[in-house]
Design a protein that fits this description.
Blueprint: H1 3-25, E1 34-44, H2 48-52, E2 60-61, E3 74-85, E4 97-107, E5 113-122, E6 133-134
Antiparallel strand pairs: 1-3, 2-4, 3-4, 4-5, 5-6
Length: about 140
């Protein structure tokens, strides 16, 4: 076998072994649902004292100091879930839903900047995001 062919064969063999190792270590995930949705976000500045009662101890407000959301400390996120399908592809419930989340930008005790969901409503009446649910 010529050296060029051996080199190609070795390269393919290494690639296959690497791929097999990655695939062998991959964890399976169970699909719960899939959806197509549109989101719109409104940013507001409200007195920080009004938000403090929603923020767990050890967490701090993380208000933007620049950019389009400068000084915003409350977000209203409107979500239209246009199609909601189960794992088999069939519609879940009505197959659509409208949601509104109220979130506060915070820093958790680990130092991560996250959005804390402090309230929400859903059109279908299902339990929505609860007080203190991190996103």
């Amino acid at each position: 076998m010529p050296a060029n062919d051996r080199s190609r064969t070795l390269t393919v063999l290494v690639a296959l072994i690497t791929w097999a190792g990655v695939v062998g270590n991959a964890e399976a995930q169970t699909l719960v649902e899939s959806s197509a949705e549109a989101q719109f976000q409104l940013d507001f500045q409200v007195p920080q004292s009004a938000l403090k009662s929603f923020v767990p101890s050890g967490w701090t407000l993380n208000v933007a100091t620049r950019g389009p959301a400068k000084d915003a400390n409350l977000r209203v996120i409107l979500i239209e879930r246009m199609t909601i399908n189960g794992p088999e592809g069939s519609p879940v419930g009505d197959g659509c839903n409208l949601l509104v989340y109220l979130t506060v930008p915070v820093t958790n005790p680990s130092g991560e900047n996250v959005q804390l969901v402090i309230g929400g409503l859903t059109e279908d009446g299902a339990p929505g995001p609860g007080r203190g649910t991190p996103v």
